[in-house]
């Protein structure tokens, strides 16, 4: 039995492309099962301003 988790979230790192993240996911033995994006905000003059988007891919263990 493998010690790897069946599902893992892979986050696109700072300076990494989506394609590079998908290659990393695949190299770790996972297949893409989902994607989610989360906005990151910072507060400027009392208002929240979006500064970037966090992209995550859900990987399921390939058998």
What is this structure, in a nutshell?
The protein contains one helix and three strands, in the order E-H-E-E.
Key features of this structure:
63 residues, alpha+beta, three-stranded antiparallel beta sheet, 1 helix, 56% strand
- What is the average of the pLDDT values? 92
Describe the oligomeric state of these chains in a short phrase. single chain
Ranges with pLDDT <50 over ≥5 residues?
none
Radius of gyration equals: 15 Å
Write the H/E string, N to C: EHEE
Q: How many strand units?
A: 3
| Order of strands across the main sheet | 1-3-2
Q: Please tell me the total number of domains.
A: 1
Structural class: alpha+beta
Shape, per Cα inertia axes:
elongated
Instruction: Work out the helix count.
Output: 1
Tell me the span between the first and last alpha carbons.
11 Å
Taking the sheet with the most strands, its summary is: 3 strands, antiparallel
Strand content: over 45%
Helix proportion:
10-25%
């Amino acid at each position: 039995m493998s010690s790897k988790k069946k599902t893992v979230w892979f986050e696109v790192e700072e300076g990494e492309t989506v394609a590079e993240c998908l290659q990393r996911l695949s190299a770790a033995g996972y297949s893409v099962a989902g994607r989610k994006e989360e906005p990151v905000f910072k507060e400027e003059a009392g208002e929240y301003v979006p500064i970037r988007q966090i992209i995550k891919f859900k990987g399921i263990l390939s058998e």
